[in-house]
Structures
1.
Amino acid sequence: MEDSWHQLQPKTTFLVRVVDRVADQSWQSLTQLYQPIIGPSATGLFSALFWLPKRGTYQRHATLLAELGMDLAHLYEARLRLEATGLLTTRVKKEQGLQSFIYELHAPLVPTAFFNDDLLSVQLLGMLGDSLYQSLVTANTISVDPDPDEENISKNFLDVFHVNSQQIMNVPEAVSHARQALTPASEASDTATEPADFDFKLLGEILNRSYVDIQDLGRYRSLLITEITMYGLDEPTLARFIGEATDLASNQFNPQQFKRLIADQFGRQAAPQTVSMAAPQATPTSGASQSTGNLSQEAALIKVASETAPALFLRAIKQKNGGFVTDGEQRVVRDLVSRQLFPESVLNLMIFHVLVDEDRPTLNKNLLDTIANDWSKAKVNTPQLAIQKIRERQAAATKPRRSRKQPTVKETLPEWAKKPSEQVQTSSQAKLSPEQQDQLKARIARLEQRSKEGKED
């Protein structure tokens, strides 16, 4: 991988792939929503790569430079901005000592997905300000207000087609494989993995006896998995929350109300005593050899972290410290759970490290994101590896920083400045010959005499 634009040359070849369908809406999103963040140069680079003739064949970067009218440094900077916002994936390939690049273009997010993305929406708000940001939200929000006397008589899918409800809650293997094949690599992380100890077939059987529209509910499978993983919900409990969040008149499931109901009940419940009592006080520190006490403490921590849902683990620590879980902390943990970057045990150890080891009063999103990025890069997927990363972080924090000593500047005064004034005067007089000294005294006497005569007149 190249780390600088200096390793990019006009003669270096590249290939362009378009991995998403770029529609008219994509270009509107690129101009209205992305351009204030990435700038016109990056927007132009995206367009140039997309419309490049023979983009499926290797070409030299000199072609891009000539078309865009920019140098390599600015081309590299524009490329980084496209990569950072998810519009471009850059791959490098080496054959026979020659390096080539593959640029994979991704379609800009549709406005709804863009505004639901925390990083992109917050950055856009910072660039434009509240007023213009709200104007863009309004302009990209489709609002249809039917007349009060209009009646919706449309049939839903299950009214027209017969589908086995068990297959909806338990997606057939052929459908799952097809989805994986069709899902771009950039979105692969969004495909939620089912919890091993949750029975979706049982959930479907429970919901079949209710008024819930299972077909409509299938669209929110990822949300259900996130809530199951975060709060440790069982099948009857999840079915109850789904029923409470479903409108009786329309049978439509409300995902926001669903999350709010679970969060409210979570806030009213006390933490399980087994969780709060079992959690050790601090992560064992590193050393030449671990004692039996440290090993048992580490094993206890791993056991609790592996058997407890993240939200419950968080609440146990906060209550033991005399605090409470804030709404912001719930959102931070839910976001990490939904990303499915780590097992629950690893995520719990991350929470434990921030609140206990570093003695932070609350979970800070920026700090958690920093740790999560570091652990994801290091492929931390077991609690043992998580504890190892915690030790490395603690060791780095305790390592004394090398301070730069400012050099002492000694000012050397000239010899004449070091002598007292009397010595200077004497030295100056010593330079006159006896005859010159007599003449000087005579001149002084004449001046004094004239001064006296002037006063007598």
Note: Confidence is low (pLDDT under 50) at residues 183-191, 273-281, 285-291, 421-429.
2.
Amino acid sequence: MRSVVVFALALAACSGPVERAQGDYPTVVSLNPCADAILAEIAAPGQLLAVSHYSHDPAASSMLPERAAQFASTGGTAEEVLALAPDVVVADVFIQPATRRALEQAGIRVVALGIASSLEASLEQVEALGAATGNKERAAHLSGEIARGWQAHHWNGEPAIAILWQQGGIVAGEGALAHALMQQSGFASLSAARGLGQGAYLPLEEVLADPPQVVITAGDERAFSHPAMRMASGIQHYTLDSSLLYCGGPTIPRALDRLSEIRRQVP
């Protein structure tokens, strides 16, 4: 028991003070970077004890840095979580079985979320987290904001043929949230038309051999800045912050803002 107390004090010293929620709200620790952003919006003051360490890394976070900095973080180990003694832990579906077992044996409820591949799936996750944390009304408000943002960016005109090219040369395939974001903001995905699934690799040579009207690059990949890309005629090149593609939830309106901004610049 003494070792757990010592560990808790050390954790507080490293990650900042943890203020616990007052009243009937269950306390929460998130190990899921996509859930972090949702919980930060719907949780009562002091209810969210810690977010995942990913949200404190600007290269991996979908949250704005100043918002993520308002919360403590953990590295995701069972020991760190147990030291905080939350009522609920939100993880992803890939949580280690031993970690989940240790948390559940301590009486902690574990909620595991998968990857949201559509607007509907993302709104369902918001609803699920609202129910799990006693914040149904706040969750409904956030869902309404996301849905209104989605509708506000509906493109009524002719779509522009585009490729969304991500880090590692992979593309957004049909059935992925990134693909749905492109369609909503006025782009027709050339990679999906070619039958490429989510995460399929698309080499530079194939892009140049059958170029789209627009190439949107997200991330830092050598092929993106290859001289051949810059010399190719007829291709309009734009960039998208890769953090806008990590998660759904509150990120959706921000991603649509940028994609719609790009679409307005395309003839």
Note: Confidence is low (pLDDT under 50) at residues 1-18.
3.
Amino acid sequence: MITELDIADLKKITELILQRHGYDFRDYAMSSFKRRVLRILELGGLTIDTLLKQLSDQPDYINDFLDGLTVNVTEMFRDPGFWRLLREEIIPGILLNNKQFKIWHAGCSSGEEVISMNIMLKEMGLMNDVTIIATDLDTVILDKAKSATYPLKNMEVNEKNYIRFQGKYSLKNYYREENGRAIFNPELLKNVSFRRHDLVTGDAFNKFDLILCRNVMIYFNQALQNQVLKKFHNSLFKYGYLAIGTKESLIWCEYVNRFIVVNQEEKVYKKIKD
């Protein structure tokens, strides 16, 4: 079993992935990247050499690698105070100047955040007024998000979050149970476009009133955080909002002076300068 990876090993992996597949992990936080590669090696019973061979010789293996590498632990209405802030302050703030608005879920993972957003918007009577783009690096996890189907065992914590969010009903109003799975109403995704997008190499696109990228940038080093924040800045309308994870910070980023803090606890910012 591989118990250690050195910098040379990690460099070989990142360079091969960049050259062969076009994904750039060179500026990911190396401690996190290293832990996840070690996990991939352990679960797959691989050595460094066999991993490199599979990445080089098996084009489809990159999908399995990305699925093992990306962080896909999430919940519906995670951090309920954040969702109450969206409902009571952020969305009303957007509506002061817009009847129609656009949201980008960057790094949407398996889609729980997207479902949460549309449940909230539906309860606010706004679902038909919003266009949502949901993106992720990992095409396997995007397919899971599109299915809006989750293990029924996950619904207990999701329901607790929804109750703390102070939703109008119960999450059970929005899904049916089948074979140990919670299958959400497809209508909840009717305004959502799922796309593969790489925050590292992908371009800024469209203009949005609200971007959510929560618990993603924590895995980037400082240089990449700067690069991604610039991308978000360019993708926001002036006075648009950016939400990041509660353990993340923009304080050291070069573009931070183009935003103001809306809520420090929930890490919500507003773009004030182009």
Note: The chain has a mean pLDDT of 91.
4.
Amino acid sequence: MFFTSKDSLSRQRKEELAVFQKAANLRFRSLELLNLSLTHRSCGNEDPHHVQNNERLEFLGDAVLGVVAASCLYELLPDRSEGELARVKSYVVSEEVLSEQAKALGIDACILLGKGEEQSGGREKRAILADAMEAVIGACYLDAGFETASRFVLSLVEPEVRKVLQNRHRKDYKTILQEYVQKYRRGYPLYTVVKRTGPDHDRTFWISCAVGVDVYGPVSGKNKKEAEQNAAKSAYDAIIAAGGLEAARLSQVEGG
């Protein structure tokens, strides 16, 4: 799937893509291909001209991202176990990290959305932004080859790996808490939706986290995944604040 024609893109769109390329330090031969990587499937619901979307490029980009990130970690962390490498990789290629990188590069401003998705806050949705980031990686691979795509991915991955090594990254509290409860309490954290507030297009979830007989929260999030992560952090913070053996064990799990 290669595109060469630029005639179908408006002058304004070409300028928008030029701004993005400068921010990402990329230079596409095919602006049509780059444009496709930034075309969400919701466009096809309302505009018959958008018969293609970025989902196939996302699939390809996910694979490129995975192999480059794994290779990077293998080289940078020669003393780490497979489990530790997998944990770091899951963070650096996570939806949260990719969506923040997408915002930093201006993808939230130049992604093409259908009117319905636009009105429901699609430009702020992590899943949409992270998927677009992967689609751009896939497009870069098709446009310029693996070496160029690899350099682009490394520019995204290496700073995040350094954050992990310096303990400056956003922690996956759900994973930390689950490993602690499985190892020392022989069970699993239990997450319960206490309530939902707000209209359908701007819903807030309130979730509590139970660790044995202890219940933490409820705390809120803009989706269930975010609320569960916040509830896990609430439990983590409470256990650490209480001190003693349980806090020591939880800290041990976090440190790997």
Note: The domain at 173-254 is CATH 3.30.160.20 (Double Stranded RNA Binding Domain).
